[in-house]
Design goal:
CATH class of the largest domain: Alpha Beta
Helix content: 40-55%
Radius of gyration: 23 Å
Number of domains: 2
Order of helices and strands: HHHHHHHHHEHEEEHEHEHEEHEHEEE
Bound molecules: S-adenosylmethionine
Structural class: alpha/beta
């Protein structure tokens, strides 16, 4: 990233972050979180309020990109550097959200342009286009319509159905939900009352109020952790895991590791990211939980020990989290997906080395793409004839019938629990060795 950090003034720090997130998505193919992690790893500091502001504005931009670009390209006739376009997208979103006085918008857009070598020679253009956007705003008062990126929507229509794709689009325009997992199952009713939460069908709580996490009762005390209902379901379907030895190959920030520990399992956590391991350690400390943590690439992990359960919650396109990470629909060139597919395939082949003969692999991810999910499992059993996948049963009372697909895999979608605000898309499969 070509930035000069010495000229960033405090005043534009949230806008600077917004611009970095937009460049991250449209130039470097990084998610919002990856950009924030990247900047932190380079010792950039942003206050929590700046991150919150940046997330709000970028969510608006990713969610309304078609309308924003329609408006922008009325004023920007020449082909222009994408980083400059991104500054103007910020200006339009701020006009639409009516958050700052007009003069402040123009000044900060020009200041922002000056922070990078790529954009500083375009400050004149940015100044002129921003002023035109502001002065012509009333006569061309645009309706900002929220819709999914067209290729992404087409994928959903083709692979699910038009009705499901439309429902996912509807749910995607709503505010994201905040779900939590309670450490101690017996205390669910107590916390439901204390947090005025909704009890979801599988025992997660959904918080209705839009409040800061650390201000919520029980957070600092380690009574619960944040985990979307969908990602908490696979482990709930495994039955009794008390005293089982679990290897969690992609474990940070630790949602599933904490679930296992709370249920009495012994967990070995592996993750390659220092920053995310720090988050894992903070989460475990807050929850007063202890476990072995190994910082390594999963492919370098070695152990003589075998495990009853190997959890591989693989890195993936994160397309299931589209309600929260609206940018994921814009970052799918073939190369990125191919890298992810390779990691997923390799991790399955790695996991099978560490499972006891009666043990299992729990494969999961938050993707809506079948190539990362169903196809990986079908390929694995095709190439490993001594392995099979075990169907999740439709008789299982904890799950609704349409949460399972035709193979018996868990296939959760953002439009499931539609009336309660939806859930993240999530996929899970269980693999076992055939008895000789
Ligand atoms: C989907 S997240 C895991 C979420 C976690 N299981 C939970 O429930 O909170 C994927 C994790 O894989 C880690 N990761 C990505 N590539 C890796 C690799 N090659 N080796 C080890 N960890 C990796 C990332 O740092 C990230 O923390």
């Amino acid at each position: 990233m070509n930035v000069n950090k010495f000229i960033i003034s405090k005043k534009i720090s949230s806008r600077y972050l917004i611009h970095q997130i937009l460049d991250g998505v449209f130039i470097n193919r990084r998610t919002k979180t990856q950009t924030i992690d990247y900047l932190r790893s380079k010792k950039f500091f942003f206050e929590e309020k700046d991150i919150a502001q940046a997330e709000r504005i970028t969510d608006f931009i990713f969610g309304h990109l078609n309308s924003i670009d329609d408006k922008l390209f009325l004023f920007l006739k020449k082909k222009t550097d994408i980083s400059v376009v991104n500054i103007l997208r910020i200006v339009i979103s701020e006009i639409a959200l009516k958050e700052s006085p007009d003069y402040a918008l123009v000044n900060s857009a020009v200041d922002l342009a000056k922070t990078s070598f790529k954009t500083k020679y375009f400050s004149g253009l940015i100044n002129a286009v921003s002023k035109s956007l502001i002065s012509k705003n009333e006569e061309k008062d645009f309706l900002f319509k929220s819709n999914l990126e067209s290729n992404f929507k087409n994928y959903l229509v083709k692979n699910y159905s038009k009705e499901i794709a439309d429902n996912i689009e509807k749910i995607y325009t709503l505010n994201n939900t905040l779900d939590i997992t309670i450490k101690s199952f017996e205390e669910i009713e107590t916390w439901k009352k204390k947090l005025e939460a909704i009890l979801l069908p599988t025992g997660s709580l959904r918080i209705k109020k839009n409040v800061k996490l650390i201000d919520l009762n029980g957070f600092k005390e380690g009574k619960w952790w944040v985990q979307n209902i969908s990602s908490s379901i696979p482990i709930k379907l495994l039955g009794n895991v008390k005293d089982k030895n679990v290897l969690d190959l992609f474990s940070a920030p630790g949602g599933k590791a904490m679930q296992f520990i709370a249920l009495g399992a012994n967990v070995t956590c592996v993750d390659q990211s220092s920053f995310r391991i720090k988050m894992l350690k903070e989460n475990l400390a807050r929850m007063k939980m202890k476990t072995e943590i190994i910082k390594t690439d999963f492919s370098r992990f070695r152990s003589q020990k075998k495990f009853d359960i190997v959890l591989i919650d693989v890195p993936c396109s994160a397309t299931g989290t589209i309600r929260k990470n609206k940018e994921v629909q814009y970052i799918f060139p073939k190369k990125r997906l191919n890298n992810l597919l390779k990691i997923q395939k390799d991790s399955l082949n790695m996991a099978k080395k560490f499972v006891t003969d009666n043990g299992l692999i729990l494969y999961c991810n938050c993707s809506l793409f079948s190539s990362e999910s169903e196809c990986q499992i079908l390929d694995f059993v095709e190439n490993n004839r001594d392995w099979y996948f075990e169907k999740f049963s439709k008789k299982n009372t904890k799950i609704q019938k349409d949460w399972l697909d035709k193979f018996g895999f868990l296939r959760l979608r953002p439009d499931h629990l539609f009336d309660l605000g939806g859930m993240d898309g999530f996929f899970a499969a269980i693999l076992k060795k055939k008895v000789q």
